[in-house]
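Lecture notes, unit on protein representations.

Consider one protein chain, 164 amino acids long.
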Amino acid sequence: MKFGYSRTFLPVGIALALGAVSLTSYLAKAQSNAAEVNDMTGSWLFNLSRTAPSPLQFLTLTTFSKDGTFLGTAQGDGICCPAEGPAHGVWTKTGHDAFAATFDTLWHQADASLFGVLTVNLHLILDQRSGQVTGQFSGQLVGPSGNVIFPLQGTLTGQRIRIQ
């Protein structure tokens, strides 16, 4: 049995294949842009202004994963003592442009003994036009025996980290 193709079928087949590839890449890009516009997924640089227990400004780097996990590190992490470790937590969408996250960090002394666990709650609003985030944070550092060492609160702004 001999297989053959018509001269009309080959150009039509090639045109359909190219169209499918173009449409697939267009849809993938559209989905990527749509997710970026109204989603926290990705890495961010945050500027935090702490108001309690005392005023302080500092930077954090955070990553919001698609699966709802959160990782972060703050300016000054690892400076002894007590030293603060990286943040581990979760995040979720709470409204059209609203998000919430909760994370914990371990604080330790120079001998690696536990100083306390800092739990922080974030309430974030994403501005779709600018791609920036604003919000508030609150939490507390709790010692190994369950005593509150200090409360924490303040405001923040954030910018998505992009390829340059």
